[in-house]
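During the first year of the project, the team set up a workflow for recording each protein of interest as an amino acid sequence followed immediately by a discrete structure-token representation. This format lets reviewers and collaborators read both layers of information side by side without switching files. As required by the reporting guidelines, we include two representative entries from the current panel. The first entry is reproduced here exactly as it appears in our internal archive.
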Amino acid sequence: MQIPPLLQVERLVLGRDSGKQAQELSFVLNPGEVMGVVGPPDSGKSALLRALVGIQRSETGQIRICGFPPGSLQARALVGYVPSVPALYEEFTCVEYLGFFAEAFGLENHYRPYLIRESLRLVRLEDCLRTAIADLRSHGVRRRLALARALVHDPHLLVVDDGLARLDRVEARQMVEVLGEIRNTGKTLVLSGPSLGEMAGLCSHLCILVGHQPLACGEVRALRPRISNLRMMQVQFLDRVPEAVRRLEGDRRVFHLLQNMPNYNLLRFLFDGTADEFDELLESLRRAGVSIVSYAEDPSFLGLMAGP
């Protein structure tokens, strides 16, 4: 009998972009593999992660976790989930907080102390066993405690939504190190964020979402040629912004155009092309009478992943 993959997604449709044909998403992850899910705001990252853990149902396609549908009792025992805004119970100590969830998962009493200590050790919080959650001031520490809660029942699949949000550079680096150590235990990870940044080095797989549609998805080494020219750009205009928006929306190399409010003159978008092609795009805007103040690329979008 063939053993099913740890995570299998087949022909999943996250949403429909007006006027465009819905794109299906399919991928497989095995033990120890890590998928980074990246994309601009409102691109469908959280929707995908919620579908994987069974919080949000998908109308089309199929998801299986070790052969079980998400949300089933069997799948829930195999999955740990950290939402973008994790709930921490301020009145509890760390051990009480993890104990509450250990009981909710039905873990046997004689195993609970070991599993609680082990989950805190994995996230480098073993010294916080008796610390009140209300006394945890660091965003990084609180985020790692939420991670420990997701690990307390020793899941096979760990799903973390926007795990580096609000963390400073030191905290983000520490979180990435912790996630790498968790991966090394053989667990499969799905991590999301607006950009990969320091998470790029963790990922064996990548899924880029734009407008609830997959722009690219698969193993990193296979995707490198496809994403080598993909860049997140930010352009500030002096005037004639509606004309710039019209022309950019009509360019097939431009994806997910966002207008920064209240700074009406600032546009952010994904561009699929070389640096010379981007210069040509800007020149075409100038010829149309659009004045450009400045432009910059966000190097953290794919981190080092798009490099050779």
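The second entry, processed by the same pipeline in the following quarter, appears below.
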Amino acid sequence: MADFTYVPMVGGRFGYTAFVIDAYAGLIPGKECSPTKNTAFVERAIRAAVMRRTREGLISRLI
């Protein structure tokens, strides 16, 4: 599962966070923050999660 969240900052601006969640284990194996809303930091969060996986059998569903 993945989540993309807006984080309010001082001065009315926003920061952005992306989380990849292992729903079975209840862990967050991938996370990234960015001052701009773009796909690059979301891709980094996904790549970090894939690199941290310790078992075979990754199930991925992208909608």
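For the second entry, the following points were noted during internal review. Residues 39-52 form the longest helix (14 residues). The longest strand covers residues 14-22. Both points are flagged for discussion at the upcoming steering committee meeting.
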